[in-house]
Amino acid sequence: MGKIILVAGARPNFVKLAPLCEQFAKMDLDSLVVHTGQHYDHNMSQLFFEELNIPKPDINLGVGSSSHAQQTAEIMISFEKVCNDESPSLVVVFGDINSTIACALVAKKLGIQVAHVEAGLRSRDVGMPEEINRILTDHISDYLFTTTKYANENLENEGINRDKIFFVGNIMIDTLKKQLSHIKKSKIMHELGVKSKNFHLLTLHRPSNVDDEDNLVEILEQFRSPEFNCPVVFPVHPRTRNRIIDNKSIDVDSIGLNLIHPLGYNDFLNLQLNALSVWTDSGGIQEETTYLGVPCFTIRENTERPETIYLGTNTLVPDRTTPYTNYLKTINTKSDLPEIPLWDGNTGYRISKIIQKELKIR
Ligand code: UD1
Question: Is 98 near ligand 1, meaning CB less than 6 Å away?
């Protein structure tokens, strides 16, 4: 069995990478980790490797930030050299970021097999760069590892051969379960001066919400209402911070938002666990709040994670002009959530076993 390259580039990728690194090491699979460098700030990258015990990347492509075309192209050029030097038999990519499609495309064109972890998610909104990355990556992958039955249905409806699709569950939940004791020990609420179930948590980074000045102002102004009568903690993604700094008309202090820097995994999950409600446009946070049973309001018109809506923890907030306070009245913390099939902490193990078996026989 040949070498396996695991590719990760941005914050949510690292959370999905950790369980596979652990399992690959246990099974003694010959692998190396390539970090594309898409995220590079300490809090967006290294901190996650430290907290989640991920080995230091073997190779860092150091691409950094730029336009979509430039970032994707730079990753491709650098990753092609890595593949030529290392001759892997499999490249594993995660999620839906630019690093995902860039490395999948390079590998496939060199005749190297590709595995996609978190395949089959669809928002049906190709205005989202992530939706383009998902569709393209799925259609060139040899192994598609899915989180839910909805993802399997999406892939089959697009004509992808069933033999390539493996329903393995949600690998982010592996990390969440493993870290739970560290998450509970975090002192972040004390540091911020907030109390459990007496604050709201906000994150925003989707280009559709933050790159357009008017949209960003409309969303942030929603939180000015006195009906948000407890603090709104807002760990700010660098993309959003730059937009807020650029926009002199936004005064986050007068809105009453508690702006803080991006947090590490344990601190951020501690805030999710203890928040009265979570307001976000992230994908992974919709899943984590569903697992934790915390009410989540997703500031988007659609979601690629419909199970989070059906289970009742997640609500789409598609309209920036309807008062968000209307949604506050619907907050109802779920305590008797049904188990979600295969969101059980063993997804990394299942994926590793399948890879081990498949690479031997194909
Ligand atoms: C990327 C992913 C998105 C994912 C998100 C998680 C794509 C198309 N988007 O979005 O799917 O949900 O990561 O966070 O791949 N920046 C820094 N420091 C960093 C990283 C970024 O300052 O360490 C700033 C730069 O100004 C950069 C901007 O953030 O231009 C956006 O970063 P980028 O990686 O292009 O996209 P994200 O918005 O992070």
Answer: yes
- Look at residues 130, 158, 132 and name the one whose alpha carbon lies nearest to residue 144: 158
Tell me the two tokens of residue 142: 């040899």
Q: What is the mean pLDDT of residues 21-26?
A: 97
Q: How far is CA 38 from the centre of its chain?
A: 14
Residue 129 CB less than 6 A away from ligand 1: yes
User: CA 280 → CA 207, 228, 361, distances in Å?
Assistant: 13, 16, 43
Rounded to whole angstroms, the Cα distance separating 279 from 267 reads 17
Q: Quote the radius of gyration of the chain (alpha carbons, Å).
A: 20
Strand order in the sheet with 296-298: 257-260, 232-235, 200-202, 277-280, 296-298, 314-316
CA separation for the pair 354, 357 (Å, rounded) = 5
- Amino acid 129: pLDDT: 97
Q: Is the CB of 11 under 6 A from ligand 1?
A: yes
Protein residue with its CA nearest to atom 17 in ligand 1: 238
How does pLDDT run across 268-278, given as a tens digit for each residue?
Answer: 999 999 999 99
Amino acid symbol at 56: K
Query: Which residues does 87 contact at the CB level (< 8 Å), separation at least 6?
Result: 2, 3
CB atoms within 10 A of CB 301: 14
User: Which tens digit of pLDDT belongs to each residue from 207-245?
Assistant: 999 999 999 999 999 999 888 889 999 999 999 999 998
Measured distance CA(70)–CA(76) in Å, rounded: 10
pTM above threshold 0.90? yes
* Strands 232-235 vs 143-146: parallel, antiparallel or unpaired: unpaired
